[in-house]
Amino acid sequence: MKINLAKTKEIVFKRPNPRLSVHLAPVANIEQVRAAKLLGVVLCESLLFDEHHKDLQSENVRDEVTSPSKELHCIFHALVVSKIR
To answer: Of the residues 9, 14, 46, 73, which has the fewest C-beta atoms closer than 10 A?
Structure first.
């Protein structure tokens, strides 16, 4: 199996206490990142899901803008069209 170095990322998981963290040098030819998306889940170095939550929110906003759902259409008619009439 060949590894595609252009797509390979390295994440060093760290402890929350900065005194206990160890700074490692990146592996040669592999980019070291603070967060990466793996199978739809954003993993970050602190193992918190803040980045994943932000990513989900941005995807939801993008989906609502590009393809309005029935609920959004119903809310628009209930609030906006009723005021115009």
So the answer is: 73
